[in-house]
Automatic annotation (TrEMBL), chain A:
Ranges where the Carboxyltransferase domain occurs: 4-210
Pfam families assigned to the protein according to its UniProt record, in alphabetical order: CT_C_D (PF02682)
Keywords, in A-Z order: ATP-binding, Hydrolase, Nucleotide-binding
GO molecular function, one term: hydrolase activity
Annotated protein name in UniProt: Allophanate hydrolase subunit 1
Superkingdom field: Bacteria
Endpoints of the signal sequence: none
Upper taxonomic lineage: Bacteria, Bacillati, Actinomycetota, Actinomycetes, Propionibacteriales
Organism: Nocardioides nanhaiensis
Automatic annotation (TrEMBL), chain B:
Ranges where the Carboxyltransferase domain occurs: 27-296
SUPFAM superfamilies: Cyclophilin-like (SSF50891)
SMART domains: AHS2
Gene3D superfamilies in the record: Cyclophilin-like (2.40.100.10)
Keyword terms, alphabetized: ATP-binding, Hydrolase, Nucleotide-binding
Pfam families, per the entry: CT_A_B
The protein's name: Biotin-dependent carboxyltransferase family protein
């Protein structure tokens, strides 16, 4: 049984809330698999986030059926490591070259009490995985792939004062996440570098490079 | 008729190509978008014999003029507005009827006397290019853009169905004084003081900084429960969500809403009542009424 707390979002959608990101990822994997098996008719959107999964359905009856079904799904054993939704285990990571000259690189190093080269070493040495998207089309929230002892933490708070404009391709850090800004926008993440790899192309299939489940390696470009 | 087109001579304040949207991409950060009153677009399509899902034009406050290249048939639904066809002998028609426009005729859509948005369907549908399975303009994601002078909108091939022989189709009225929108409490009603849930009744003033992303409402302060400052990790939100930032004044999300948000949602408008929000003009008022939600585990 999934120990989710259900919260209604109007008459045809609901959030399933779980204690942490790992549980949310396991729930997502179970729900995606159930949908693949055709067990969730009438589900229009499945939106993962840090502690929740949103199910948006065609109508109230479809939601009530889907929620009851999901509540009865068995979850993978967390001790066995989370599955990687949407990606076969061992799938090749997407490689993203980054020029590490971000305006906040020195501040990030100071916050972590290391030097800038160590920040780059940790960022390029971590195998990342897209946990969920949001904020803007194609903006993936990447976390260290589960079950791995990474090269060290990069957890830093957001900037106290968000920037009114962050350029497209900026690579940032916030809490346990890293991400790439798909297009110029306001933003509060600590910027460590930039990439020329487009992460959002609405005329491409798939349009988002960093969809939930995708594995990522950042590589230093000079 | 294949090969027809509508050429924009005056776009009006804001005219957008809209169909029934692009559900299924929320996990990539893309909202469903689509006509703010899907039933009105469906009706306009039926009036010209189209399948209901074809793209039409969502016209905000009229001011639209389109030149027909080739003969076309058009119809309006939504906020009641006059449609004029200027050709040799002028014809006038309101919403709810199909109007034949000869080659070279000019179609004008006036501002509605009340309400905001009118949908124009053309027989064959507006056949602009599709992104992620939809022709809808999404102002948040930057998919598509508002119509401009000189834009040429291709019209799709005529459907198999003839134009139905109706004099005038009745419409459920979406433009009403002081509309009451039904809401389901949650998903984060428990973040708010009981007084805030009672205050949802309003009345709420619709402010001028409202658009397809959301209606910014002004009214009673929706105060949070007094158990300290909490931080909400971002979570999925739906159209209809009443998200409450720190200032206590809610935003009612519409079709082009961000798919996740980090402010608590006190209640969510039921889908059937979002059409009322689509017609709620700045300076008018609305009320909210809490109803029972779905049965959940």
């Amino acid at each position: 049984m999934t120990a989710a707390r259900w919260r209604p979002c109007g008459d045809a959608a609901a959030l399933a809330e779980v204690p942490d990101l790992a549980a949310a990822q396991r729930l997502l994997a179970a729900v995606e698999a159930a949908r693949e098996r055709g067990e969730l008719p009438g589900v229009l959107d499945i939106v993962p986030a840090a502690r929740t999964l949103l199910l948006r359905c065609t109508d109230a009856a479809a939601l009530e059926h889907a929620a009851a079904h999901v509540a009865a799904l068995p979850l993978d054993d967390p001790a066995a490591g989370a599955t990687t939704p949407g990606v076969p285990p061992g799938g090749e990571p997407v490689r993203i070259p980054v020029v590490y000259d971000g305006e906040d690189l020195a501040e990030v190093a100071r916050l972590l009490d290391v030097d800038a080269a160590e920040v780059v070493r940790r960022h390029t040495g971590t195998r990342w995985q897209v946990a969920f998207t949001g904020f803007a089309p194609g903006f993936g929230y990447l976390v260290a792939a589960s079950g791995e002892a990474g090269p060290g933490s990069l957890a830093v708070p957001r900037r106290r004062e968000p920037r009114t404009r962050v350029p497209a391709g900026a690579v940032g850090l916030a809490a346990e996440f890293t991400g790439v800004y798909p297009r110029a926008s306001p933003g509060g993440w600590q910027l460590v570098g930039r990439t020329g790899t487009p992460v959002w192309r609405p005329d491409a299939e798939p349009p988002a490079l960093l969809a939930p489940g995708v594995l990522v390696r950042f590589e230093e470009a000079r | 008729m294949s090969g027809s087109a509508l050429v924009v001579e005056e776009p009006g304040p804001l005219t957008l190509v809209q169909d029934l949207g692009r559900p299924g991409h929320a996990h990539l950060g893309v909202p469903a978008s689509g006509a703010l009153d899907p039933d009105a677009l469906r009706l306009a399509n039926r009036l010209v014999g189209n399948p209901e899902h074809l793209a039409g034009l969502e016209v905000l406050l009229g001011g639209l003029a389109l030149r027909a290249h080739g003969a076309v048939t058009v119809a309006l639904a939504g906020a009641p507005a006059m449609l004029h066809v200027e050709h040799r002998d002028a014809r006038h028609a309101g919403p709810g009827v199909a109007v034949a426009v000869p080659d070279g005729g000019l179609v004008r859509v006036d501002a509605p006397a009340r309400g905001l948005r009118t949908w124009l369907a053309v027989r064959g549908g507006v056949a602009t290019s599709s992104l992620l399975g939809s022709r809808s303009t999404d102002v948040l994601s930057g998919l598509g853009r508002a119509l401009r002078n000189g834009d040429e909108l291709p019209v799709g091939p005529a459907p198999l169905h003839p134009v139905p022989a109706v004099g005038q189709a009745p419409q459920a009225l979406a433009v009403v004084d002081l509309p009451v929108l039904r809401v389901v409490a949650g998903p984060r009603a428990d973040w708010f003081a009981p007084v805030a849930l009672r205050a949802l009744a309003g009345p709420w003033a619709v402010t001028s900084s409202s658009d397809r992303v959301g209606l910014r409402l002004r009214g009673p302060d929706l105060v949070r429960a007094p158990d300290g400052v909490r931080e909400l990790p971002s979570e999925g939100v739906v159209a209809g969500a009443l998200q409450v930032p720190a200032d206590g004044q809610p935003v009612l999300f519409l079709a082009d809403h961000p798919v996740t948000g980090g402010y608590p949602v006190i209640a969510t408008v039921v889908r059937a009542d979002l059409r009322l929000a689509a017609q709620a003009a700045p300076g008018t008022y609305l009320r909210l009424r809490v109803v029972t939600g779905p049965r959940l585990p």
